[in-house]
Amino acid sequence: MDILQLLTYASGVIFVVFFARKLLKYWTMPMHVRWELYPVPHEGKEWGGSFYEDVDHWKKTRHVDHVAQYRFMVPEILFIRALYEDNRPLWRWTFPFHLGLYLSIGGLVFLAIGALLQIAGRAPDASGLAALAQSLTIIFGVIGFALGTIGAVGLIVKRLTDPMLKDYTSGLDLLNLFWLGAIFVTGFLVWLSDPGFAVSRGYLASLLTFSPGPSLGGMQIINLLLFIGFWAYFPFTHMTHMISKYFMWDKVKWDDMPNRGDAGMDSKIKAYLSYPVSWSGAHIGAEGGKKSWAEVATTNPWAQPQKEEK
Amino acid sequence: MRPEEISKPGERLEYLDPKKLAPLPPPYDDLEEEPITELTEEQKKKWEHSLDGVSALNLPRPETKEEEDKLVLAFLRGYEKLVSKENNWAFLQPLSLSLEYCARCQTCADACPVYEMSGHKDIYRPTFRSDVLRKIGKKYLSPGGKILAGFRGHDIDLKWETIARLAELAYRCTLCRRCTQVCPIGVDNGLITHELRKIFSMEMGIAPMEVHEKGSVKHLQFGSSTGMIKAAIEDIIEYLEDDIEEKTGKRIKIPVNKKGAEILLVHNAGEFMAWPENPMAFAVLFDAAGISYTLSTEFVGYDAVNYGLWYDDVQFARVAIKHLEVARDLGVKKIVIGECGHAHKALSVIADRLLPSEQMIPRESSYALLWDIVKSGKIKFDPNKNDFPVTLHDPCNVVRLMGVVKPQREILKAITPPGRFREMTPHGVNNYCCGGGSGFAIMGSGNFPEWRVKLSGRKKLTQYLNAFQGEMDPSIKKMICAPCSNCKGMTRDLMEHYEIFEKTGIWYTGLVELMVNAMVDQEKPFITWPDEDEDM
Ligand code: SF4
Ligand code: SF4
Questions:
Q1: For B251, which of A150, A264, B135, B268 is 20 to 30 Å away at the CA?
Q2: CA–CA separation, B166 and B195 (whole Å)
Q3: Contacting residues of A for B348, CB less than 8 Å apart
Q4: Are residues A173 and A234 in the same domain?
Q5: How far is CA B78 from CA A30, A280, A289, B71, B140, in A?
Q6: A182 and A142 in one domain?
Q7: Which atom, in ligand 1's list, is nearest to the CA of B109?
């Protein structure tokens, strides 16, 4: 096993561990109070209404319109519709960038399928299925690299020149874009030197079978190092917003689940009310963490026999 | 301006030139506006004002460097608590997501009425204050935060000026969450402002006097943020019965503390004082529709407001728990919330996961119940009695933040002649805040009220005017229906400042007043215009 293979495994392990840690961090956070924002698509009311529009809403069966939710989410995920509608000048660059990213990841998936087929003894020149996987790798990869490059360059220029964005762009933001752009460009150059991605497929197959890999060309090594470096770094960045979007939309903006006697919800609320409070504001009266939420919330420091205010 | 510049020395970070504010529609298109009045020299000496020359908090300047450092440390301690499970379980997940994932694309900027109407002043960008908070967290609270801080984009200085300006900046956002609606990631700058206010209040004891001492504290001390005690509200309710008789010719008994009633109706107590026609109209409608309801005059039960919603979770919880207790003691089946937007959201949405379900009482919007009354046909309405152009203001708390959009529109369509009701652009869940949200409508110290009518209310004023373009002649009376106490308060201030009725004939009222005005058996008009003699 050579050093590149070791680095690739290490990068994969770092990605999985830290990405999972991040997901876990959000999964295990306490249930928050309701903080939804309308329109909530699963309410199924195109004017943005909610169950609160109905008299005695708690007596009615709650209707959750999943189709409406998907109708909203699919264009949002695929086309970044929010940005298309509200920030078209940025969408022009960020859409090709993200599409390039999705297609490149798609290309990698087809490359992995091709590698598995190769391990099973089905090379592209002898198997229709393997040839299809190869063609799809090329189509997804090449279009992805091209769009990703266009998007990355456009975003770098925009971030450096747009007065709205300039003051909100750090060196690290530019490095991230440059890094991803470099992966796209070198990926494209790899394709020029190896139009069927045969070497890359062979390398992936060697990783999957823990066997020595083919010798890689200079551009392939650069592309690989850029990629695995980014893969390991990614979970530590705000670029995981693809995933956080799920939490932010599904678990915050659209979480309108009412408290109607759900045992799980009740037991969570009871547990939270027993958490100690240590806010120092004098009016809180938390006594430095000696009081619980239930205690401070049911204490009225100003309680007195009623007197008219003077 | 970069968020880091919040810490730069100087008497003021931003100057507000009235000529740079977004222009208003006719007849105010050539209005020469005065600049916001400068604080007096004495006030300037006393109060922190180095953000934009405005003081909402009347924050005293520390006298020594030690005091300054103590406050900076208190802020950091509060920030740590804000991101801890124990102290902030209620908002930890949405806050952490919003702090961690902003892509700094600035899509939110143009959705913000304050930023837009200020003439795009950087300090009012939704991301400006959020980024300051983020950068402080990254640099001063994250392990290794100071390493390559400049390159990583969070090299912010932390000193008294930073904290003081941030405190003021926490009160330049109405928490309307329009910016959140357009964010492609879902980042919630309104929430970040809310949470920032919590650090100041819950850790450092800093909050606007009108919201805290004269607001939630009074509520818990006297029973109402207005300072009204039980005996006073009982007197007022009796007066209302007399006034109803005078206005409608009917003697109605307003039920009070009636055990076994189905509904506890709660009003913003400010209505009893500033707009008594509103609780009167509710009484007339509920009586006519045969609704089984009661008002409460028990401690806290006669004031639906909950100012804690805007700045302090503990104050919020204390008041919400009292509201629920009062309803439980009366044995009602549900609480119906009158025309008060933030009370809607506080009691219906936010308080929903405050207590285990066995201690909860169902809560309902009065808009939904009123629409039900209209549909039931129990009351006959004659739309021709409201024969004037009417537009509808959507209170953010009821509409964007709670999803009650349709009932109020359907009611207006049913009680106005065809073609008289017109929508603002945009409306419904995409509405603009009245400019008085999150406590602004009641905050009146220093020169903040001027900032409010010139900036945070400017977009709504633009919408009000645009709704009636072509009919601007003051002799054509036009009505804004603003079914929320705070929104009415803000609208009243806009009316006064810009002399809107005198110049355009536009006036404002609530929803129930328009309903009673249209009742077939209502002989005299229930609504009065400012140029009419009430006794006519
Ligand atoms: S809050 Fe959202 S819209 Fe605003 S800059 Fe951040 S990611 Fe963009
Ligand atoms: S919540 Fe409203 S006022 Fe505050 S930043 Fe967002 S859009 Fe502006």
A1: B268
A2: 12
A3: 52
A4: yes
A5: 19, 8, 13, 10, 13
A6: yes
A7: 4
Q: What is the pLDDT of residues B54-92, one digit of tens each?
A: 999 999 989 999 999 999 999 999 999 999 999 999 999
**CA nearest B187: which of B274, B283, B106, B263?**
B106
Does A26 reach chain B within 8 Å, measured CB to CB? yes
Residue A39: cis peptide before it, omega within 30 degrees of 0: yes
Interface test with B, best of A34, A287, A296 (most B CBs within 10 A): A34
The minimum CA-CA distance between A235 and chain B, rounded to whole Å, is: 12
Domain CATH code at residue A29: 1.20.950
**Contacts with B91 from chain A: Cβ below 8 Å:** 32-33, 35
Three-class DSSP category at A278: coil
Tokens coding A183? 């992966």
Same domain? A210 vs A286: no
At residue A139 the predicted structure's pLDDT band, cuts being 50, 70 and 90, is very high
Determine the distance separating the centroid of ligand 1 and the alpha carbon of A71, expressed in angstroms. Answer: 23
Task: Kindly determine whether residue A33 and residue B350, on different chains, have CB atoms separated by under 8 Å.
Answer: yes
Site residues for ligand 1, CB cut-off 6 Å: B 102-108, 127, 183, 185, 187, 189
Same domain, A275 and A231: no
The answer on A288 and A167 residing in a single domain is: no
ipTM computed for the complex: 0.95
Question: Which chain A residue shows the shortest CA-CA distance from B102?
Answer: A238
Nearest chain A CA: its distance from B476 CA (Å): 31
Identify the CA nearest to B284 among candidates B523, B531, B92.
Answer: B523
Structural domain span for residue A273: 263-297
CATH of domain B212-371: 3.40.50
- What per-residue confidence (pLDDT) applies to B536? 38
Kindly state if the Cβ of B117 falls inside 6 Å of ligand 2.
Answer: no
How far apart CA B373 and CA B386 sit, in angstroms, is: 18
Q: How many Å apart are CA B285 and CA A158, to the nearest integer?
A: 58
Inter-chain contact B103–A275, Cβ cutoff 8 Å?
Answer: no
The answer to whether residue A306 is domain-embedded is: no
Distances (CA, A) of B503 to B17, B48, B461, B506: 24, 37, 13, 8
What confidence tens digit (pLDDT) does each residue in B336-351 have?
999 999 999 999 999 9
Closest among B418, B411, B416, B420 to B382, alpha carbons compared: B416
**Does residue A24 sit in the same domain as residue A99?**
yes
Mean pLDDT taken over chain B: 96
Interface of B with A in 148-177 (CB under 8 A): 150-154, 177
Interval between CA B110 and ligand 2 midpoint (Å): 10
Q: Does B76 touch chain A (CB under 8 A)?
A: no
Report the pLDDT value the prediction gives residue A145, as an integer from 0 to 100. Answer: 98
Number of domains, chain A: 2
Measured between beta carbons, the chain A residues lying within 8 angstroms of B317 are 293, 296-297
pTM score, whole prediction: 0.96
Both A113 and A225 in one domain: the answer is: yes
> Nearest CA to B165 among B79, B82, B48?
B48
Q: Are residues A187 and A106 in the same domain?
A: yes
pLDDT tens per residue, range A234-266: 999 988 887 788 899 999 999 999 999 889 999
CB contact, 8 Å: B104 with chain A?
Answer: yes
CB contact under 8 A, B403 and A51: yes
Contact state of A306 with B230 under an 8 Å Cβ cutoff: yes
Q: Does A35 touch chain B (CB under 8 A)?
A: yes
Considering chain B, what percentage of its residues have pLDDT values greater than 90?
98
Under 8 Å between Cβ of B350 and B309: yes
Give the per-residue SS3 of B436-451.
CHHHHHHCCCCCHHHH
**With bands split at pLDDT 50, 70 and 90, how would you rate the model's confidence at A304?**
confident
